[in-house]
Fold this sequence. Notes:
Strand content: 25-35%
Radius of gyration: 21 Å
Largest sheet: 6 strands, antiparallel
Shape: elongated
Number of strands: 6
Amino acid sequence: MKLNTNKMFVYIFIAVCLLPALLFGSRMIWPTINDVRTGQTKEYPDIQPQRFAQARENVFAAALAVAQSFNWEIRLSAPEEGLIEAVDTTPLMKFKDDVTITIGTQGTETVVNVRSKSRVGKGDLGANAKRIRKFQAELAKRLN
C-alpha cells in the first residue's frame, strides 16, 4: 500500500490549522465557565431568578415535577427549606452535572433560583446555561 504524501500533508495541515480555529471559535461562542447561577453569572445576563405570584409550596411542587420530568436524579428534596438538589447526566459523554434549585419568598412573590455546575472541565460549551433556560421555560409553562 503506497501512501500519497501530498494527501497526508494536506490532512496534517488541515488538522494543525483547523483544531486551534475550532477551539478558538468555541470560546468566542461560549464563555469558558462551568458554573452558571441565576442572577449571578455575568456571562449570561439574561438568566435571572424567576418570580411567581403563587404559594411557595405550589412552586416547589412544580419545580420538583419539572426536575423529575427531565429524569434528573433527585438527591435532596426539602420542601420546608425550599431546596432541591439533583444530578443531570449528559447523554453522550455521561458527565454528571449538579443542579441546585432554591425556592424562597420576597414580599408577596415566590422566587426561584437555579445553579447548574459541571463537575468536570473548565468549560461546558453552554450546557449549564441551556439546562437552566430549559428548566425555567418548563416551570413557567406549568405555573402560568
